[in-house]
Amino acid sequence: METLFFSENEIEKAAKIIKQGGLVAMPTETVYGLAADAMNAQAVKSIFKAKGRPSDNPLIVHIYDISQVDSLVKSFPQKAKKLCEKFWPGPLTIILPKSDLVPNEISPGLDTVAIRMPAHPSALALIKAAGTPVAAPSANLSGSPSPVTAQHVKNDLDGKIDGILDGGRCSVGLESTVITLVKEPPVLLRPGAVTVEEIEAVIGKIHLSHAVFEKLELGKKAASPGMKYKHYSPKARVIIMKGSDEQYVSFVNSHADSNVCALCFDEDIPLLHTKAFSMGKKLDYEAQARSLFDLLRKIDDENFSTVYARCPTAAGVGMAVYNRLIRAAGFEVKTFA
Ligand code: TXA
Ligand code: MG
User: Fold this and answer.
1) Ligand 1 centroid to 96 CA: how many Å?
2) What lines the ligand 1 site, CB under 6 Å?
3) Which of 33, 132, 251, 305 has the least CB density, counted as fewest CB within 10 Å?
4) How many CB atoms lie within 10 A of CB 78?
C-alpha cells in the first residue's frame, strides 16, 4: 500500500480516508496517533494489524467536543466531568464504563472505554471532519518509542497505513495521563503531562497504580494492559543509574567506549568523556518529556549498544519521564551505594 502524505491544509482528504475505514496517522500535542473510525469494528481491527499490537491492549477514543462523551459511556460521573472541563482539550485520558454503541474491538475483554480530547488543532479538525470519534493508539510499531514527528511515523509504518497528516513536532512528547474513574477512588494508570498534583487539586485524593513504577508480576491482571508490555524500547540496552551527579559522571567516564553513550542532563555534558545525549536541564521535566522519545530513536540510528541513563526525578511531569524511561530500560536500574 502507498502511504500518502498530507499537509495541514489537506485535512479533508485525510478525513475522507477515515470515513472510508482507512488508517491515518495524526499529530496530537502528546505523540502521533494512528487514527481510524472508532465505530467501525473492521477499521479498528486494522489498527492492531498495522502496529503489530497485542490484541488485548485497548485503544483510546478521541473526540473533538465534550458532547460526544455521552454516547460512548454508560455514565459520566461528576468527577470525570470536572476533569474534562479543566483539562480538555489536552493530555488527559479518562476511563469510564463503555456504552454498547462502542465496538468491543476498542477495549477487548473490558467493559470500559478510554476517551481523550486532544489539543492539537489539526487533530481536532480531523476528528470533526471525519464525523466520528476516532480510535488512536500511538502511531509506532508496537514496542518501539512513540513517534513525535511525522518522520518517526514514516520510519515505522510507511507502506502499512493509508496516510500521514504532518502537523509538526509534538509539543508534549510523551503520551497522555490515563486515569480510571470507573470505581472510587479514581486510579492513575499512566502518568503524563497532566500531573497527579493538578488532578488532585480538582477532584481530591487519587490512587497511583503500582504499574506506574513497578514491573507487573507475571500472570497478574493489568489495570491498564498497555503497562504490562516492554515498551518504548530502543534496540540498545538501557540502564538507569541511581546516584549522585558525581557518581554518574565517574561511572560513565570509566566505562567510556565507542558502543556506549550517555543519556543525561545538560549539566552533565561538559563533564562526560563519551558520546552524550541530553534530555534537558536536570529540573526541566517538560524539556525531558519533549526530548526522550526522539533521543531513544536517535540512539538506535547511531547503533549504540549500551545507554547509561540518568535517573529522572519522578515529580510533576518528571513522573511520566521516569515511567517511560524505566520501561525503555526493561526495569534495569543500577543503584550506587
Ligand atoms: O497521548 C496519548 O494518549 C496518545 C495519543 C495518540 O492520543 N495515545 C496513546 O495510545 O498513547 P496508546 O494506545 O499507545 O496507549 C493507550 C493506553 C494503553 O496503556 C492502554 O492499555 C490504556 O491506555 N487503555 C486504553 N483503554 C483502556 C481501558 N479501557 N482500560 C484500561 N486501560 C486502557
Ligand atoms: Mg503506545
Assistant:
1) 13
2) 28, 30-31, 33, 57-60, 91, 93, 95, 107, 110, 112-114, 116, 118, 136-138, 175-176, 178, 189-190, 224-227
3) 305
4) 9
